[in-house]
Amino acid sequence: MNIIKHIAAVLATLITLNVSAQTIQAPKDFLWGVASAAYQVEGAYQADGKGESKWDFLTNKVGVTQYIIGQKQTGNVAINMYDRTQYLKDIQLMKELGVNCYRFSIAWSRIIPQGVGAVNEKGIAHYHQLIKDIKDAGIEPVVTLYHFDLPQALVEKGGWLNPESVQWYKNYADVIFKNFGTEVKKFITFNEPYIEFFLVDYMLNSTQSKMPANLRYANEINNVHHMLLANAEATKLYHSLNLGGMIGITFNLSPCLPFDPNNAEDVKAAPLQDELLNRIVLDPVFKGSYPANAFALIQKYNPSFQPSAADMQFIAANKPDFLGINFYAPAQVKHDDDAPMGVSWMGNNTDAIQMTNGPVRPDELYNLLMRIKNEYGNIPTIITENGASFNNNEDSVVDGKVNDVLRADYIRRHIDAALKAQHDGANLKGYIVWSGWDNFEWVFGFTKRFGLIYVDFNTQQRIPKQSYYVYQSILQQQIK
Ligand code: NOJ
Predict the structure, then answer these.
(1) Cα–Cα dist 372/451, whole Å
(2) pLDDT band at 210 (very low <50, low <70, confident <90, very high)
(3) Can you give the pTM of this predicted structure?
(4) Does the active-site annotation cover 394?
(5) Is residue 192 within 6 Å of ligand 1 at its C-beta?
(6) How many CA atoms lie within 13 A of 207 on its CB side?
(7) What is the CA(15)–ligand 1 centre distance, in A?
(8) Cβ of residue 326 lying under 6 Å from some atom of ligand 1
(9) Which of these ranges, 41-55, 200-214, 299-313, has the smallest mean pLDDT?
(10) Candidate list 42, 233, 364, 385, residue with the active-site label
């Protein structure tokens, strides 16, 4: 009897999987890809005239990973993808995987080493070659202009707190569009402003600044605001050049759920966290205003933050052509008097097996895409990152293989949820896995693996994992 029940359960699972990714077919022009970012994969941190970036400085001079993992690690070599011999092999792996797009970022400090001023022709030549090689393999480049790596020379001028940052970025974007605008048809201005400022910058500043936490937190809005203005400037510029492509911006978005649904304070904290985490970037860009409660709280601690009506109009008047969504997990929100603004989500995770970026809830990706449809005018969206890293050692090599069943299952179920939302009317145009390869995970260094392809960080050997083959078989069904 038990065996029969067991077989029935297995069959039910198989049927569920069948009904999922396999039966809903994405539209023909749907983008399927993998992603990376310059600092996390390139290495060659001083090659060909590259300037120092914020992350070169943080890892080499501050030794930032030591505070988190107890060891100094850097992206000086990373996974060696600046090297053409190496990246040609990686492009071949992408080709065998079957993706039709590759999202990567350009390092500003390779293009304009001091952030402003002289352009480095060797940097330009490198990315021309890379883009050509990607396209020659039949893969569309999706290019992020900025993925956390401000040139250090600009950090020293105040970074994104300096209102001039808007012009610095516009100038950089102009160089990018003029050089690559005919080859690249999808650009992303920025990656995850929330994470850069309210999470990482805020955390790093805590070691240097004596300011109370809420004040430091509220100050981060100045960075965000300048970044949103820079986004609008670059978008306007891109549109004026009539290059025939699309430009978007990528936000990390996490539906906010109360950590304990029976705790009234957590229930109340969830919508506030939603404003502070999601709407703080979505609303200005798509609705022309900051969300009221978050705005009031931020102004309480940072009264000088008074964005002008002209700024807000400018941001909303120059909307992106698509929204990039990085989705990993929902936020399980707690009321927490010790956390900035009295709410916390990072590190809250009720799952038994812990995924680094939160609890595994594919339904929340569905809900998120439907929310964008219903509340943000159903603008075109691309899932620019979705992926997983688990704390259960599933990424170890056994007999030359990596059997990452949890990641494979995660990806399959999230594709499912995404296609279901698309089927139900969400304007979804693509799905991109983070990441193609294990790489340098910021303050965690090389201790968190997100890749479909295992990388031996000492030898640079690549081993496609189980999740690579699962994604490959989904792509074979989807791209015909
Ligand atoms: C989002 C970031 O864009 C990426 O750089 C990071 O590695 C992944 N999340 C995984 O945490």
Answers:
(1) 28
(2) confident
(3) 0.95
(4) no
(5) yes
(6) 11
(7) 33
(8) yes
(9) 200-214
(10) 385
